[in-house]
Amino acid sequence: MAMAVAQHRVSSSGSSINKHLDASGKYVRYTAEQVEALERVYAECPKPSSLRRQQLIRECPILSNIEPKQIKVWFQNRRCREKQRKESSRLQTVNRKLSAMNKLLMEENDRLQKQVSQLVCENGYMRQQLHTAAATDASCDSVVTTPQHSLRDANNPAGLLSIAEETLAEFLSKATGTAVDWVQMPGMKPGPDSVGIFAISQSCSGVAARACGLVSLEPTKIVEILKDRPSWFRECRNLEVFTMFPAGNGGTIELVYTQMFAPTTLAPARDFWTLRYTTTLENGSLVVCERSLSGSGAGPSAVAAAQFVRAEMLPSGYLIRPCEGGGSIIHIVDHLNLEAWSVPEVLRPLYESSKVIAQKMTIAALRYVKQIAQETSGEVVYSMGRQPAVLRTFSQRLSRGFNDAINGFNDDGWSIMNCDGSEDVIIAINSSKNLSSSSNPTNALSFVAGILCAKASMLLQNVPPAVLVRFLREHRSEWADFNVDAYTAASLKAGTYAYPGIRPTRFTGSQIIMPLGHTIEHEEILEVIRLEGHSLVQEDAFVSRDIHLLQICSGIDENAVGACSELVFAPIDEMFPDDAPLVPSGFRIIPLESKPCDTQDSLTTNRTLDLTSSLEVGPATNQASGDVPSCQNARSVLTIAFQFPFDGNLQDNVASMARQYVRSVISSVQRVAMAISPSGMSPAVGPKLTAGSPEALTLAQWICQSYSYHIGAELLRSESVGGDSILKDLWQHQDAILCCSLKSQPIFIFANQAGLDMLETTLVSLQDITLDKIFDDAGRKILCSDFTKVMQQGFAYLPAGICMSTMGRHISYEQAVAWKVVEADESTVHCLALCFVNWSFM
C-alpha cells in the first residue's frame, strides 16, 4: 500500500506527463505517437471516464502497453499543466495591467504636484500684488484672465491647420497637464479593478470631465471606435463629416456637424460645428482632438439646424498611447459649453454639471471601448445564442427610438396634434415612420399608417432615480395596463392589427425577466420580459397570449453620481428575429444638482411637507422645532414617452387612448414616488412642524375664513363646515389657490393641487419660487399697484392676464383674486392668498 502511494506521488510529478511505468516497473518515456493520440482525446474531452479510457486503449494499439491507471494519471497531470498555464497567463495579464495603472497613477501624481506648485506660485504672486494697492485691480485681472481662442481664417487649409495645431496643444495641456483644475469624480476611486481614473473640472468655463484607463486594444482600433460617436454616445443623433483633407504632417483635418438629442421634452436639442484633427505624435501616440470653429453662424444651413441650439465644444479629444506589453492607455477629455441660458431655470443644473457630462460622455466612452475589448477577447458570455454585436445593436435601437420619440424632430416626420394649450400630455404624430429593418424590408408593417407618441415631463422631489427605476422594472403591474401592452404587441404582428377588437385576454400580472446581456459594470442591462396571459375565449383556451418585451434598464446604481436612470422597452415577437421592428416607450429620470435647505426657509419646508401628510391621514400636530432634521432638495426630472402604432381611420381613437393611458401612468408613478421617497412625505418619517407654524388644517381654515370675511362669499361649498373636509376640499378646489409670505421678496408657502399643476412644481419646491417669478412685466405692475389696496381693504380683483410656470410655459387666467389671510385673532396678517380662476396653458 505504501509503495502504491509512493508510486502515485512520483507519477504525479511534473515530469510524469511524459513518462509511464512499464511492465517491469521502470519509467518509460511516452513516444511522440502516444502523446499525439492522448492529446487528440484531451482536445475532445479533458476528463474522460474510466470506460472512455479503456476504450481508448482498445482502439489505439500504441497505448496497449500502458495501464489504464497510468492513462488516468496522464490526464490528471495534463489538466494540471493546462491550469498552471492559464494561471500564469492570467498573472502576466494582471501584472501588465498593474504596471500600466501604476504608470498612470505616477503620471497623475506628477500632474498634481505640478498643479500644487502652480497654485503655490499663483498664491505667492497674489499676496505680493495685494500689497501694491495701486495695481490691485490690474493684477487680479491678469491672474484670472484666461487667454481666449483667437479665431483664424477657417476658409482655407492653412488657417484650419493653424487652428488644429492650437487645438492639439490646448487639448494635451488638459489631458496630461494643468490647464484645468481637475478633481476626482465623486464615488469613483481608482484601483486595479476599476474601469479607469475619472475627474471633473472644479472651476472652468463650461463643463469638463476627464478619464484615463488601460484597454487591451490597439490604438488604431480605439480611434476607429471613438470617432464613431453615435455608436457609443446615446444622445448623439447624427454626426456628418462635411470636409476632410490631409494636414500635410500625416494627419487629417475634418469639419464635422454633430446633432445631440435633448434628454427631456422641456429643453431644445444641441448641435456642434467643429474641427476634428487626427494626428500621430513623435512618441507614437495617436491623438484625436476637436473644437468648435466659431459661433452659431457657421456650419450647415439654418434650415438644417432650426430645432437646435448651437453649443460650443472647447478643446477636447482622445490621446491613445501604445503599451509595451500590448494594449493602449487612453486619455479622454470632454469640455463643453451647453448654453444653459436656453433652458428653464429648474433644468439649468443639468447643463451646468460636469458630473452629468462625465457619466453620459466621458465614462461612457471608456466603458464602451473596454466592452468591445472584452467581447473581442471572448470574455463576455451572452445568453439566447445572440452575438454581442447584435445585442449592442438592439440596445442602440431602443435608446435611439426613445430619443426620437422624446424630441420629435420635424425632419423625421413628427408633428404635434392640434391642442388648446392646456394639455399636460403632448401628442405627436409621425405618418412617415418606417418600421422595417434595414436588412429585411419585407418585415415592414405596411398596414400601419403611422406612429403616435404621448409624452410628458414632470419634476420629482427627494425620489432617488435608481430606486424608482428599479421599482418600475420589478413591479410593472403597479403602473402598466397589460391590455395596452397587448394592443401595442398585436399591432406589430402582420395581419393581426385591430383596434379595439383585440382578442379578450386575462393577464395574471406576473412577469418573467430573461437576461440577455449587460455591460462590464452592469450599468446597463438588456433583457426580455414575458408577461403571462390567458385567452378568455374557450376555443383559444390553449393558445398562449403571452406578451414579450425587449427592455434596457440603466442607472440603477444609487452611488453613480450624475447618472441618468432609464427603463425603455418595446414589444417584440416571441421568435425575436435580429431585424425585428421596434417601437420603444419608457421612462427617463435625470438627477439635478442637490442643494442644502436654507435654515431661514426651513419653516416653509415644514409647512408644505406637513400639509401633504395631513391630506393622507388627517390634521397634523405641533411638535418641537428641534426635531426638524437637516434635508436635501434632491430634484430630478422624469420624462415619459409611449409610442402606439395606429391605422389611418383610428388616429383620433388611439390619440384619446394614449392621452388617458399616459395620464394614468403619471398618476401611478407619482403614487409610487411618494411611497418610496425618503424625504418624509408620509407622517411616519415626516419632519415635524416648528413651534411658530400653523397646522395644515388651521391654515386651511384661516384661508377660507379670511376669504369669507373680506369678500363676503364662500370659497368652498357649504358642506365643508369643519373637520378634515375643509382641508380636503381646499386641496381639490378646481381653481389654483396659492399663498405667499409677506416679506420683502414674497415666496410661496402653500398651493393646492391645482396650484401645483399650474406652477408645474411640488409642495417642497415652492420655497424656491418667488411671487415675481410667475408674472410678466405687465402682471407685476398690476400686482404692485393693487398691493396697497389689498392691504387696506383686505382684497382685490386682478384682471385677466398671463403668468408663467417653473418649466417656462405660459399660463392664461380669466381672473385672479388676492386677499389677506389673517390669523384667528383677526389682527395678525399671516400671508397673502391668490386664486387664479379658469387657468390654462397656452
What does this 3D model show about the protein?
Its main location: nucleus. Belongs to the HD-ZIP homeobox family. Class III subfamily. Keywords: Coiled coil, Differentiation, DNA-binding, Homeobox, Nucleus, Transcription, Transcription regulation. The chain is built from 19 helices and 30 strands. With 842 residues, the protein is of the alpha+beta class. A hairpin with a 5-residue loop joins strand 8 and strand 9. The longest helix has 63 residues.
Biggest sheet record: 11 strands, mixed
Per DSSP, what share of the residues sits in E-state strands of 2 or more residues?
A: 15-25%
Number of helices: 19
> Helical amount among residues, as a percent range?
25-40%
The tally of beta strands, per DSSP, is 30
Calculate Rg over CA atoms. Answer: 34 Å
Q: What structural category do the secondary elements indicate?
A: alpha+beta
First-to-last CA distance:
97 Å
Mean pLDDT: 77
Give the overall silhouette. globular
Query: What ranges have pLDDT less than 50 throughout 5 or more consecutive residues?
Result: 1-15, 133-151, 437-447, 494-506, 595-632, 679-693
Keywords:
11-stranded mixed β-sheet, alpha+beta, disordered N terminus, 9-stranded antiparallel β-sheet, globular
Give the arrangement of secondary structure elements.
Blueprint: H1 2-11, E1 19-21, E2 27-29, H2 32-44, H3 50-59, H4 68-130, H5 136-144, H6 157-175, E3 182-184, E4 197-201, E5 207-215, H7 219-227, H8 229-232, E6 236-246, E7 252-260, E8 269-280, E9 286-292, E10 308-310, E11 312-313, E12 316-322, E13 328-337, H9 348-351, H10 354-377, H11 388-407, E14 414-416, E15 426-430, E16 450-461, H12 465-474, H13 482-491, E17 505-518, E18 524-535, E19 547-554, E20 565-572, E21 585-591, H14 602-617, E22 635-646, H15 651-676, H16 696-711, H17 724-731, E23 736-740, E24 748-751, H18 753-759, H19 777-793, E25 795-798, E26 801-804, E27 810-813, E28 815-822, E29 829-837, E30 840-841
Parallel strand pairs: 8-10
Antiparallel strand pairs: 1-2, 3-4, 4-5, 5-13, 6-7, 7-8, 8-9, 9-12, 11-13, 12-13, 14-15, 15-16, 16-22, 17-18, 18-19, 19-20, 20-21, 21-22, 23-24, 23-29, 25-28, 26-27, 27-30, 28-29
Helix pairs in contact: 4-5, 12-15, 16-17
